[in-house]
Specification:
Layout: H1 2-9, E1 13-17, H2 22-32, E2 38-43, H3 46-56, E3 62-66, H4 72-78, E4 84-87, H5 94-99, H6 101-121, E5 126-132, H7 141-155, E6 166-172, E7 174-175, H8 182-193, E8 195-198, E9 204-208, H9 210-223, E10 229-232, E11 235-238, H10 239-250, E12 257-260, H11 276-279, E13 282-285, E14 289-293, H12 297-302, E15 315-317, H13 331-337
Parallel strand pairs: 1-2, 1-4, 2-3, 4-5, 5-6, 6-10, 7-9, 8-12
Antiparallel strand pairs: 9-11, 10-14, 13-14, 13-15
Helix pairs in contact: 2-9, 4-6, 6-7
Length: 338
């Protein structure tokens, strides 16, 4: 796969929206290893941009662009000559989105449509949108806005039947130790209050490592033919069990209390990888991931004879684990990820 990825990125110009975030910055680091002609970071926080450049040693093929995906004109400028876009810019915190719903709409929905329009206009070859399991049967603003992002990206392949730009999405769960996630929050709570706060004893979540997330995104860029949703095969855990694993590993010598604070607005008890719309699509799988793709996609979009997509090493599947509360729970995998 390493050689395949080198072929995918070597000599190409890659732009990453939200390129200073947890996922975006790691994508920058990984893509730079494959000798791209240019990597462009598109984000709006100059301090994070400065810190990223410092940490990377100012590589000559890395460009930093201040910009917001709400600004279509700036996006059009940034995407000139770009081959591949990773769209990681988003509002992502459940509670912040709940209290600022229209701001989430302007970034996660309108901003994503701006990325699509600019990519088509600038004839970008591939655009991979980064989504979340919260987009599946959403109950809050964050999940709903990310579901709309997915819908926009998948249906963007219908814009012009002869267009060169291909759009796809990746969908994954909570990333362990990412900025704003539960473990850094718990670590701060332990330091300040000698307590960690859990929303609900029965609540479960899918968790993955940052490395797993990046591998999924890079593989999606390589495998995508347009119109897919790529989903990692994820392990899940109850938040109470996660708290026990966390305390055992990092604070075993201290007496730390676990406080149940109740579910927050917009949160689900359990996450899912697929919804009813995915059930109407073909699901392919290998050992690490699923690919959800519209049935007869090529026939519908491009008016060519019906044919199956070609994903080397993947097989069409009917049965798969879907809900975080069921048999996807795997404490040993979670311990390794932590």
């Amino acid at each position: 796969m390493e050689k395949d990825l080198e072929k995918e990125f070597k000599g190409k110009t890659v732009l990453i929206t939200g390129g200073t975030g947890s996922i975006g910055s790691e994508l920058v680091r990984q893509v730079l290893q494959y000798e791209p002609a240019r990597v462009r970071v598109f984000s709006r926080d100059e301090t994070k941009q400065y810190e990223l450049m410092e940490s990377l040693g100012y590589p000559k093929n890395l460009n930093i662009l201040i910009g917001d995906i709400r600004d279509k004109e700036r996006l059009n400028f940034a995407l000139r000559g770009v081959d591949i876009v990773f769209h990681a810019a988003a509002m992502k915190h459940v509670s912040i989105c709940e209290y600022n719903p229209f701001e989430a709409i302007k970034t996660n929905i309108v901003g994503s449509q701006n990325v699509i329009d600019a990519a088509v206009q600038q004839k970008v070859k591939k655009v991979i949108g980064i989504s979340t399991d919260k987009a599946v049967n959403p109950t809050g603003v964050l999940g709903t806005s990310k579901l709309m992002m997915e819908k926009l990206f998948i249906n963007a392949n219908n814009y012009i039947k002869t267009q060169d730009t291909k759009f796809a999405c990746v969908r994954f769960g909570n990333i362990i130790w990412s900025r704003g996630s539960v473990l850094p929050s718990w670590k701060e709570h332990v330091k300040k209050e000698k307590v960690i706060k859990v929303t609900d004893q029965e609540m479960t979540r899918f968790f993955i490592s940052r490395k797993q997330a990046i591998n999924l995104v890079l593989r999606a860029a390589k495998l995508s033919e347009g119109g897919e949703i790529f989903t990692l095969k994820m392990a899940s855990v109850s938040l109470v069990d996660l708290a026990k694993i966390f305390l055992e590993k990092y604070f075993s010598s201290q007496d730390i209390k676990v406080e149940i604070v109740g579910k927050r607005q917009g949160e689900k008890m359990h996450e899912e990888m697929f919804d009813q719309a995915d059930a109407a699509r073909d699901i392919y799988a290998d050992e690490e991931m699923f690919i959800s793709v519209a049935k007869n996609r090529l026939n519908n979009l491009y008016e060519v004879p019906d044919q199956s997509p070609n994903y080397p090493g993947f097989k069409l599947v009917k049965d798969y684990k879907n809900i975080s509360s069921q048999e996807a729970i795997d404490l040993e995998k979670i311990k390794k990820i932590i």
